[in-house]
């Protein structure tokens, strides 16, 4: 469980105005919701993305075709043709990594699976109910309850919460009696989910308690949108049913949300935890139903829970007929495990707070666009009143369905419909249901824009005609009245991430006092912090990417035998995407650097580079070589806006070669998107000339290709000739100018581990392979597992997807823009993988001897739990000859953005914290080093504050 302590984030002195300005100019992300967020002290998702599922944009013509084939019923559309899917949040959310881990420990025994007992314990602990029987899903549970509890000809009093439950009650022979509160759709009342207890009393009075089989109430659903019931209302319902010995069946699928609203809106509960209120509600029930697809982030499953031993026996007797044995109820062992974990997550307040925040954000946006939204906001979605929206001009026949169809056809956004057909609802509502933990603020903004667009253009929709009158809403077919109206193509300002979360990993927050202690214990070195003590981890983009579901599928297909076919996949990917003839796998980037340096450098030789990188230089020096910097001067000026600060200064390069002699140059090493210069790219025109200089003189040009795809994107963005060229083509051309590369597979290639050398020369390939077999593994694995090679290979293809890489770089630029607009000194222009704070300008009062960047990184952690990396005098190390610090021109703190892991909301939090620190900069002092290791000192050096600080 996450210990929540978000309240500890203290941004009191932050300049809100600057952020708002930045926000406006970018026109995106969740800033508009900030006021709501800060009320709750939540600013971003309480999790990071762990597995992502790429989403595809769908062409106009394809959508129209799909809609026609689906008979204009959005519920019949194939999901692959939907771009942002807000049809339902039932079973469609992202499981946590712990739930996914649970899938791996499924006990698939027919009887007495250990996962069942875990589920039983979770039910007891979270709901406080003793007995549990799992079922395959909510309908399974409703069917059993109906079968056992309904006496034919009797009444079931229900708040009409679940269409499938109603169906089962009727089939079991019950008269269904509506006890939902009779509130107006737009009535401003906090608990429109309240049950009409008096109406139930009247029924009991009229027909006698024996004629009422049970009362059934589903929390936070119903014909008015997903509104909660007050605890007082539920208690009086309980009193009434208890007095008359009528069983109370509560569907607790939204009990946690209901509990949240009780605490927020009902007097006397403000100091309670959601978990305790949930237990209280659950204990009002004689029978509880829980649809785990709604309640606990599961993709399948439900359960029936009770304290009534007799009823439990009855369920056990019947579950074997319709579902499966009582210890699995039609579920895999693994799914019971995921549900058990999910039950604890259901009452996690960080999750709840964020889910509701996102809904509120959507609601506010839609209200801002003038759409008639049902208020107050409910638990599972935002509801739009279509009759109020279309008014007289709208179609008479199925207007909500017609609007949903139009919305999909024109924007690719799918939403649900609540109407007569769905749940007997008297209204025509678009139910915009946001799958939990799956979509981000940007997706929500995109959907809001789409809804605004559809609303504006929908006046001329003529409606849908049912051609399957008796059909269930899922199967209903329609024909269109007239044709889809003419419309101007939809254009959205917001570009959402081109993926949705499939698994998330909770991130914890902690108090400032805690962080002060933690950084002290870590010797003021962010490398020495424990990751579990970090809130947003921007230490590095290395090995920290969220892999896609396709990459994970590759993990499952790892062949760990010698001669694994996964090597072939990797080899094919490198050959196809980067164009090198031979591929030598290595366990990560520095291993490739080791092999390359040892194979190509003779003692006393030189290696010109476009700025140094720590490990690269270390290996050059260990092989007896010397690195010579040939990057353009602008790279070292953080204020220069040169678009290609990674370029080589051709004069410097020629001069080194002339001065040292061609045969004293081991090779020229060029990095795309130069790491130590804050991610600055080189241009094609520059690299072409570098290549010519090298090749005219018979010198090898080797890339450190670690961030080559991002460089290719920046070329597309900044080099006019390439605006319309795909990243794939640019990259191929870029790589063609070189003779080989080392690659850390942990960055652009989206691997968590791995690397390789690509080389065109057969002779060198053989030389490298001999080294690989000494240091790494075989030439067919380089010390990697089969599964990692497969995942890496798939990542190599994914990195050249224009949508993905564009979104990746845009996120980095977004953070940069927030800071620039707030006048925080950063390196410009912002590169593709990190935003670098310029510590010299940020803390001008701290001399470089006192490690200003090191201290700034430490203070950022203390301020908000954001971890960054020093890239200044500590990283530069000492001059071996003089023993003095190397004093680099750039004294930076690198905020490195992992790929596909954090959202724009996380970026907002980071920006806010940096601004806060900038405001207090005068209070920050320097550090002194108290431990220094001999090599790559930044990893483990220790510091303490200078006296007086
Ligand atoms: C990073 F503090 N980079 O940026 P390996 N070349 C380049 C890299 O960026 C790189 C490697 C080679 C890291 C991890 C790291 O001083 C540090 O797969 C341009 O990590 O072995 C790695 O690739 C090495 C962080 C490395 C550091 C060295 O965060």
Overview of the structural elements:
The protein is 41% helix and 14% strand. It is α/β, with parallel strands linked by helices and 949 residues long. A seven-stranded mixed sheet has the order 4-10-9-8-7-5-6, sandwiched between helices. Strands 19-25-24-23-22 form a five-stranded mixed sheet, with helices on both faces. A four-stranded mixed sheet has the order 3-16-1-18. Helix 23 (589-600) packs across helix 29. Ligand P61 is lined by residues 540, 542, 588-590, 613-616, 671, 675, 704, 706, 744, 746, 755, 869.
Keywords:
single chain; 949 residues; alpha/beta; five-stranded mixed beta sheet; disordered N terminus
Q: How would a textbook summarize the main sheet?
A: 7 strands, mixed
Structural class: alpha/beta
Instruction: Tell me the overall shape.
Output: elongated
N/C terminus separation? 36 Å
Bound molecules: ligand P61
In DSSP terms (H or I, runs of 4 or more residues), the helix count works out at: 35
Give the overall average pLDDT.
93
Helix content: 40-55%
Compute the number of strand runs. 31
- Our Rg estimate from Cα atoms comes to 31 Å
Poorly predicted regions are 1-42
Strand order in space, largest sheet: 4-10-9-8-7-5-6
Q: What proportion strand?
A: 5-15%
What does the secondary structure layout of this molecule look like, with pairings?
Blueprint: H1 16-26, H2 34-40, E1 47-54, H3 60-69, E2 84-86, E3 95-96, H4 97-104, H5 114-127, E4 131-135, H6 138-149, E5 155-158, H7 163-171, E6 175-178, H8 197-207, E7 212-218, H9 231-243, E8 248-251, H10 255-265, H11 274-282, E9 287-291, H12 292-295, E10 302-306, H13 309-322, H14 333-346, H15 349-368, E11 381-385, H16 386-390, H17 399-411, E12 413-418, H18 420-423, E13 429-433, H19 441-457, E14 464-466, E15 478-480, E16 499-506, H20 512-521, E17 536-537, E18 547-548, H21 549-556, H22 565-577, E19 582-586, H23 589-600, E20 606-609, H24 614-622, E21 626-629, H25 650-660, E22 668-670, H26 684-696, E23 701-704, H27 708-718, H28 727-736, E24 740-744, E25 755-759, H29 762-775, H30 786-798, H31 802-821, E26 834-838, H32 839-842, H33 852-864, E27 866-867, E28 869-871, H34 873-876, E29 892-896, H35 904-919, E30 927-931, E31 942-945
Parallel strand pairs: 1-18, 2-12, 3-16, 5-6, 5-7, 7-8, 8-9, 17-27, 20-21, 22-23, 23-24
Antiparallel strand pairs: 1-16, 4-10, 9-10, 11-13, 12-13, 14-15, 19-25, 24-25, 26-29, 28-29, 30-31
Helix pairs in contact: 1-31, 3-17, 4-14, 5-14, 6-7, 6-13, 10-11, 15-19, 17-19, 20-33, 21-30, 22-30, 23-24, 23-29, 27-28, 27-31, 31-35, 33-35
The structure holds ligand P61.
């Amino acid at each position: 469980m996450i210990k929540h302590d978000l309240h500890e984030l203290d941004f009191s002195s932050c300049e809100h105005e600057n952020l708002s300005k930045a926000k406006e100019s970018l026109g995106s992300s969740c800033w508009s919701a900030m006021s709501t967020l800060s009320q709750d002290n939540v600013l971003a998702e309480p999790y990071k993305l762990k597995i992502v599922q790429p989403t595809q944009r769908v062409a106009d013509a394809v959508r129209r075709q799909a809609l026609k084939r689906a008979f204009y019923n959005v519920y019949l559309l194939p999901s692959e043709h939907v771009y942002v899917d807000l049809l339902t949040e039932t079973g469609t959310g992202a499981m946590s990594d712990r739930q996914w881990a649970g899938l791996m420990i499924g006990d698939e025994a027919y009887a007495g699976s250990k996962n069942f007992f875990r589920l039983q314990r979770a039910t007891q602990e979270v709901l406080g109910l003793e007995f549990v029987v799992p079922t395959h899903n909510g309908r399974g549970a409703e069917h059993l309850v109906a079968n056992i509890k309904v006496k034919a000809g009797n009444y079931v009093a229900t708040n009409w919460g679940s269409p499938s439950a109603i169906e089962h009650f009727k089939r079991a022979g019950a008269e269904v009696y509506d006890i939902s509160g009779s509130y107006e759709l737009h009535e401003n009342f906090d608990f429109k989910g309240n049950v009409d207890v008096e109406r139930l009393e009247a029924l009991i009075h009229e027909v006698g308690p024996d004629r009422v089989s049970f009362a059934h109430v589903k929390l936070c659903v119903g014909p008015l949108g997903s509104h909660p019931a007050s605890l007082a209302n539920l208690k009086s319902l309980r009193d009434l049913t208890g007095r008359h010995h009528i069983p109370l069946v509560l569907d607790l699928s939204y009990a946690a949300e209901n509990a949240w609203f009780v605490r927020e809106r009902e007097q006397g509960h403000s100091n309670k935890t959601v978990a305790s209120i949930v237990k209280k509600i659950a204990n009002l029930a004689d029978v509880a139903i829980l649809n785990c697809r709604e309640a606990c982030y599961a993709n399948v499953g439900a359960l029936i829970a009770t304290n009534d031993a007799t009823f439990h026996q009855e369920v056990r007797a019947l579950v074997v007929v319709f579902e499966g044995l009582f210890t699995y109820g039609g579920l895999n062992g693994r799914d019971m495990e995921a549900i058990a974990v999910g039950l604890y997550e259901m009452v996690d307040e960080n999750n709840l707070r964020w889910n509701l925040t996102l809904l509120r954000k959507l609601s506010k946006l839609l209200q801002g666009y003038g759409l008639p939204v049902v208020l107050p906001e409910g638990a599972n979605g935002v509801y739009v009143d279509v009759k109020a929206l279309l008014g007289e001009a709208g179609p008479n026949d199925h207007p909500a369905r017609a609007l949903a169809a139009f919305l999909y056809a024109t924007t690719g956004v799918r939403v649900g419909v609540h109407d007569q057909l769905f749940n007997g609802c008297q209204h025509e509502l678009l139910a915009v249901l946001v799958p939990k933990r799956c979509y981000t603020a940007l997706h929500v903004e995109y959907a809001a824009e789409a809804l605004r667009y559809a609303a504006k253009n929908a006046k001329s929709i003529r409606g849908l005609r049912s051609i399957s009158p008796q059909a269930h809403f899922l199967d209903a077919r329609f024909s269109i009245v007239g044709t889809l109206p003419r419309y101007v193509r939809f254009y959205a300002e917001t570009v959402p991430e081109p993926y949705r979360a499939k698994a998330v990993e909770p991130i914890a927050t902690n108090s400032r006092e805690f962080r002060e202690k933690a950084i002290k214990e870590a010797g003021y070195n962010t490398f020495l912090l424990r990751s579990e003590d970090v809130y947003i981890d921007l230490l590095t983009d290395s090995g920290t990417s969220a892999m896609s579901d396709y990459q994970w599928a590759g993990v499952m297909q790892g062949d760990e035998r010698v001669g694994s076919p996964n090597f072939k996949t990797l080899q094919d990917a490198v050959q196809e995407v980067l164009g090198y003839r031979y591929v030598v796998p290595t366990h990560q980037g520095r291993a490739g650097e080791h092999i390359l340096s040892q194979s190509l450098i003779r003692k006393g030789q030189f290696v010109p580079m476009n700025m140094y990188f720590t490990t690269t230089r270390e290996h050059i020096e260990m092989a007896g070589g010397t690195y010579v910097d040939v990057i353009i001067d602008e790279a070292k000026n953080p204020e220069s806006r040169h678009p290609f600060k990674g370029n080589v200064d051709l004069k410097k390069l020629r001069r080194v070669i002339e001065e040292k002699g061609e045969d004293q140059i081991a090779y020229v090493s060029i990095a795309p998107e130069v790491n130590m210069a804050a991610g600055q790219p080189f241009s094609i025109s520059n690299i072409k000339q570098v290549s010519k200089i090298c090749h005219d003189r018979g010198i090898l040009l080797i890339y450190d290709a670690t961030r080559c795809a991002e460089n290719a994107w920046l070329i597309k963005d900044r080099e006019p000739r390439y605006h319309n060229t795909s990243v794939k083509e640019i990259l191929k051309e870029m790589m063609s100018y070189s003779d080989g590369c080392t690659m850390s597979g942990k960055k652009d290639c989206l691997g968590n581990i791995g690397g390789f050398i690509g080389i065109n020369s057969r002779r060198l390939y053989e030389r490298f392979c001999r080294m690989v077999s000494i240091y790494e593994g075989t030439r067919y694995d380089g010390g990697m597992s089969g599964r990692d090679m497969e995942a890496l290979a798939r990542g190599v293809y994914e990195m050249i997807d224009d949508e993905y890489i564009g979104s990746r770089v845009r996120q980095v630029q977004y953070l940069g823009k927030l800071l620039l607009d707030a006048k925080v000194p950063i390196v410009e222009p912002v590169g593709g993988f990190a935003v670098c704070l310029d510590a010299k300008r940020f803390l001008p009062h701290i001399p470089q001897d006192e490690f200003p960047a090191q201290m700034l990184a430490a203070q950022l952690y203390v301020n908000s739990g954001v971890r960054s990396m020093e890239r200044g005098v500590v990283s530069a190390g000492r001059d071996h000859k003089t023993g003095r610090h190397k004093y680099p021109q750039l004294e930076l703190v690198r905020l490195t953005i992992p790929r596909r892991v954090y959202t724009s909301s996380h970026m907002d939090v980071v920006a806010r914290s940096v601004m806060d620190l900038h405001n207090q900069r005068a209070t920050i002092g320097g550090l002194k080093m108290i431990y220094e290791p001999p090599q790559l000192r930044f990893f483990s050096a220790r510091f303490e504050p200078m006296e007086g600080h």
